[in-house]
Amino acid sequence: MENKIPDNLSIAEKRELISLLNEMRQFTHSRFSSEEIKRFRQMMRTAMRKSSHPHDSKGLPTSIMTLKWAILFAQAIEPDHNILLAIGLYPMLTCGQTDILEIRKEWGEDVAGLLTGLASVDKFSSKNNAVHQDNFRGLMLSLADDIRVIIIMIVRNLVLMRSINHHPDEEWVRNVAFEANCLYAQLAHRLGLYKIKGELEDLSLKYTNREIFTQIAHKLNETKRSRDAYIKSFIDPVKEKLEAAGLKFEIKGRTKSISSIWNKMKKQKVDLQGIYDLFAIRVIIDTPKEKEKSDCWLAYSIVADMYTANPARMKDWISIPKSNGYESLHATVMGPGSKWVEVQFRTRRMDLVAEKGLAAHWRYKGVKSDNTDQWMTNIRDILETAESGPMQLMKDMKMDIYGKEVFAFTPKGDLFRMAAGATVLDFAFLIHTNVGAHCTGAIVNGQNRKITYRICNGDTVEILTSNNQTPKADWLNIVVSTKARNKIKQSLNEELQRRADLGKEILERRAKNRKIEIDEAILMKLIGRAGYKYANEFFADMADEKIDPGKFLSTYVDETASKNEGPRISAEEYQLQRTEEKGSNNEVLKIGEKTINGLSYKFAKCCAPIYGDEVFGFISADGTVKIHRCDCPNAANIRERYPYRIIKADWSGKEGDLLPASLRIIGNDDISILANITSIISKEAGVRLRNVTVDSHDGIFQGTIVVAVSDQRQLSSLLKKLKTVKGVKDIQRL
């Protein structure tokens, strides 16, 4: 971030902006390259120069609001690279200081897509249609085909709500508060962002009914000491009993949100003193997953033995979790002083899922359902199956809408809940990824069924597997769950890539044996001509022996020959390309029997000649001379096929620029070997280290190092020094 502060901010705003910039650095420097930070700073400087209004139409400082938005997202959700970029760029986009085409060019398609989604949703949001919240929510979901856009907007709304206390435009504040309560709080609830949801509802009540909010807040403050004392009197004896039972746990009390208390007061038609469950006690148990249920029930039985439980208010979401994945055991007991106390029992894993928003328990408290409900509940499953980060996987998730649910049992009696239309294959992937990948069918209610069988309510399903079974492409037409579809795609892509890598290796090995230098452009052209849209599919078929690499290479040679072949004239008679540029590079080589000055030439990548190597020139079809080493792997093939296009080349006796040379190093896998090698290179005068690629296997270190040197003499000197490094077994120039 940039500490260039606009002059037209107040002193307090400048101080706050500097503080936020410093706070933001902890996220940017660990997730952004120095080049990205430099580019973003440049855009910010340009934007600040163009903008004479650092505040928006409501007087809020744009830069401060943007930083708060990014920081809150990083803290409450995930410090995602592309999302933080999109948030930072959004004000520049809306103010016309940049456009989507420039953003797509500079920052990529994903960032541009996020900004397009934000602009679409924001444009509709400005129309203030929150009064028709169901229509608005549905339109938001249809506009934003990337769930991250919705989450970003929720976080942005919370930042806005935190910033408008005592804003002079009271009508606008009421509209923002109404929209936050009716739309963003509900979406946050359905996505499992409970802390955000609670704060949005509290702030909404504060701005729409400040008198009630203040009364409840003051009353809670007045009774805090007595409430804390009561919680302690309840917790202390419970702690002793749970510790005596050998449980490892944390126990804490939490006061319900002000908006929740107000809703209870209205619903039960009582004042604050009439609300018996102003707080809840939570027992969080540290226990292995296999003991979660038994330990939660053990803790419940201990508390129920100490205090009388109200069976009518018992809620067991451990035996059968909610459809959104929420797991907890809730009980209400009569505590000291004949006061009802709600106690929640859950494990550390269950608490993490609930607190971090992985269980979107939107049906809790009777929130109205619509046809997006099932889609919302699938997010927990998506998050749990994400291997490259939840935000990364969620961007690929479309707005799948499912109908009702079906319930099925395993032979052991475990209950599973799935979307209507789920098949045996969906059930298998729901149990475990490996079970799904090797599924061959199932025994359903005692009868053999295929993987396409659709599960019915109450079915008992035993999955059949085989080690020889692997996911197939047509499985994508069988499953309906996002988890199963993602896992099948992942497996298919991994298998395709494995076969493609093998096929590419086969082709490269054959080409090397025949001393053929592959031109990527010609290769891609031939692959496309063969009817392949993607190169990976072509190489995979080569690995599967559907394509003969020998025949393909013959086709490749014919293609290059027909492309390059012209009248068989001598090299000296070729129409050679000349360059008008002057400089040392043009004076380094003597080309031809009689030195021809100003020729356009390139150093061949296959052998990377440097000053002092024995070289020759090969005239390409465009008249450019390619300079090869005489010991180039392709030299023999070139001399045999195109002797008439070879031209004499030699060094002029004047050194040119630094040129790259690749070295293959083999040695013992020692922690210091690479440091010693790079140290020698760095100390060698005139030598530059360009690239290092290393690998180790069974105690052997192998690496490829690219250095830039001025001549062959300098390279020979470097090789001698590197051979003296302890542990180096062999070092050769490639």
Question: How is the secondary structure organized here?
Answer:
Elements: H1 11-31, H2 34-50, H3 62-76, H4 81-94, H5 100-107, H6 109-125, H7 133-143, H8 147-163, H9 170-190, H10 194-208, H11 210-222, H12 224-244, E1 249-255, H13 258-268, E2 279-285, H14 292-306, E3 308-309, E4 315-316, E5 329-335, E6 339-347, H15 348-355, H16 373-385, H17 390-394, E7 405-409, E8 415-419, H18 424-431, H19 433-437, E9 439-444, E10 447-449, E11 459-465, H20 482-513, H21 520-529, H22 535-543, H23 549-564, E12 589-591, E13 601-603, E14 615-619, E15 625-629, H24 635-641, E16 646-651, E17 659-668, H25 673-683, E18 688-697, E19 700-709, H26 712-723, E20 728-733
Parallel strand pairs: 2-6, 7-11, 13-15
Antiparallel strand pairs: 1-2, 3-5, 4-5, 5-6, 7-8, 9-10, 9-11, 12-16, 14-15, 14-16, 17-19, 17-20, 18-19
Helix pairs in contact: 1-3, 3-4, 3-8, 4-6, 5-6, 6-8, 7-9, 8-9, 8-10, 9-10, 10-11, 11-13, 20-22
Short description:
The protein has 734 residues and is α+β, with helices and mostly antiparallel strands.
Sum up the structure in keywords.
five-stranded mixed beta sheet, 734 residues, six-stranded mixed beta sheet
